[in-house]
Amino acid sequence: MRRGFIAYIGGRLLQSLLVLWVIVTILFFLFRLAPGNPLAAYIDTTFNQEQQTALMARFGLDKPLHEQYFIYLGNLLRGDLGDSFRYSGTVLKQVLDVLPNTLYLTFTSLIVAYIVGIIGGIFMAARRGTRAEKVGIVFTLMTRAAPEFWIGMILLAVFAFNLRWLPSSGTAPAGKIYVDEFEKLTSPLFWRHMILPTFTLALYLHGLPLLLMRSNMLEVMDQDFITMGRLAGYSERRLMIRHAARNALLPVMTALTLGVGYSIGGNVVIENVFGWPGLGRLLVRAVSTADYPLAQGAFFIIAVVIVLLNFVADILYGLLDPRVGSSDQAKAS
Amino acid sequence: MLPQTQKIEQAAASAPIYQVRQESFLMQFLRTNLEVFQRDRLALAGLIILVFFILVAIFAPVIAPYGELEVIQEDGIWLANEKPSERFPLGTTNLGRDIFSQLVFGSRSALLVGFSAAIAVSVIGTVVGLIAGYYGGWVDMILMRLADVAFGIPFLPFIIVLAAFMEPNIWNVVIAMSLLLWRDTSRVIRSQVLVIKEQAFVSAARVSGANNWRIIFMYIAPSILPLSFLYGSLAIGWSILTEASVSFLGFADPDVVSWGFMLQDAFASQALSRGAFYWIVPPGLCIMLTVMAGFFIGRGYEEVLFPRLRRL
Fold this sequence. Notes:
A: globular, B: MetI-like fold, elongated
């Protein structure tokens, strides 16, 4: 491997860690800004002062701010996200319990969105300048402009409440509990519950790969090797699919990792509309019930996933683009 | 960073969008605006949609038959969950409020959020981009690392947490969004400034004794103005969408009727199971139209400023 490339990766890694540290610090102070005593909801009115102080001490809230900060950093490094105010058990457990649900929803939606988006992008590039293309672009922009939760609400009203074809909320019918993740993933019930949220999220996410694929295709179709192929008598269809699409695909795949990050952040509303027990719903519940350690933990995990995927995208980008890490790139940046 | 931003950043780094001509940058910018709306029919449609909603917002009290939070009663009985009729064009809510009036008043908060966030985002992003690009070195390094942090922070969760901790009102949502959204603007403008500061007219200004601030704001700033407008118009859309999400999740001011608030109200009042489409559909349509208007105008600018990107 080229030395410049390794230096590039090392630099990016360092930068990712730096970004994560700044985010963690912002997070810490953000949550100290929170109004009122974080234990207010926890403290019974019959508690006397002593009991309250004892409670504060248990959550480490009696120490000065900077001390709390270093304790917090140390705990994070050990993977300790603290205890929830409201639920018994650690924040890490709460978060890890719901993380798989968020990941199932995100990845299924992304796969659907990218397949549809890539095929749609090729199709639109092939129909360049026609009315169908214009309509397609406006439709795609519409799906990006419409609030996701609104689309979700309409789908719920039609398919869950009116036609009663699909369940309206959660991951299982009332009373049903999955023993483990394997039973969940092999249960048709689970997948039935996933249809509406996946469709909604995929509808929102497909715009990015579609528009990107389209513009990449058009860019590639202008290049010399395609003209050569055309002169050699290959059919336009063959050129589009076998030659142009292959080349246009790479940047779209890099964008996929970014897409994961964005959609995990954007999942929040969808999870709330569909009562999907994931990170986003956990975060919203924790914030609205002033359960700060839990909210902080959920936020932290979301941030870690995003920073991690941005880093992966940087690496992919470096692998795909030979100019990265070479000397003229260094000059340009 | 979104791939679109990446492409624009590359395009902005390759050549100045405006050349030094007889005509000043500001004149060129005025002509760009004319060109955007003349050439691009979608951008024109976006402008018309925005003007329509601005008029609705201004004349809301005249158009709306009832107050937005007014509970309509008849003989002491609340007229709740009325179906659409001549008296209530879109029916009433489960608390007996007129949905059409709420829709009309909702345009006010949407536009207020949209335009104030657009102004904040383009001002912050422009100033950061100008300073980072012009000074370079460690100033640039720090500002761009800050932009990286803004890219790494989960957008909606951050807004929710901030909105929940500060007093719930739309200004706090605007502040929270502006704290993050400046990142795209600043990166693109920085790339363009890097190109412009190498131009002869900048060295000429320096030789003639202009100080740095004067060069930045009198010479360079006018030539990157259209980029601020581009990102401003995109920010209109993003901020209206975000405000709707925040209201829908219940973290907004409960006394201000916005379209997101209406949807949250409908969702919480079982409008879905009752099939009250007259309540669910209109607010979302209004959000979609205003957001699209912002996107259309943004695309129009892109097309005129970076013809190579769009012709593809």
